[in-house]
Amino acid sequence: QVQPVESGGGLVQAGDSLRLSCAASGRTFSDYDVRWFRQAPGRQREFVAYITGSGDSTSYADSVKGRFTISRDNAKNTAYLQMNSLKPEDTAIYSCYVRGFWGQGTQVTVSS
């Protein structure tokens, strides 16, 4: 069983950066793709970024392309989402999805 746990959220100002972490249990973390999603109040959950198990391929939502970077350290069983040039519209609960399991999410709030 894989149970992702997110961390790193917080309250920042527009233009600031944050790095989110997604730590997942399991001896074969490198076998699992990782996806980040976010959900803003009153809106549907939306895809943010994806990385393959080996880390050799990534993809992003158009809204974050060029500002966010997904990466992973399989030795630490952790994936990351580096978020730069944050905007108020990035405010949401960010969750990672690993092999059918969701984390509890971490709140990101960007003030203008």
Provide a short characterization of the protein structure.
This protein is mainly β.
Structure description:
- This protein is mainly β.
- Strand 4 (34-39) and strand 5 form a beta hairpin.
- The protein has no helices and 11 strands.
- The termini are far apart.
- 32% of the residues are buried.
- Helix content is 0%, strand content 49%.
- The strands form 2 sheets. Strands 2, 4, 5, 6, 9, 10 and 11 form a 7-stranded mixed beta sheet that branches. A 4-stranded antiparallel beta sheet has the order 1-3-8-7, with no helix packed on it.
- It is globular, with a radius of gyration of 13 Å.
Distinctive features:
mainly beta; 4-stranded antiparallel beta sheet; 112 residues
Largest sheet: 7 strands, mixed
Overall body shape: globular
Which structural class best describes the helix and strand composition?
A: mainly beta
Assembly annotation: single chain
Number of strands: 11
> How helical, in percent, are the residues?
under 10%
Q: What's the alpha carbon Rg, rounded to whole Å?
A: 13 Å
Low-confidence stretches: none
N/C terminus separation: 40 Å
pLDDT average, as an integer? 96
Tally the helices. 0
Tell me the series of helices and strands, N- to C-terminal. Answer: EEEEEEEEEEE
Percent in strands: over 45%
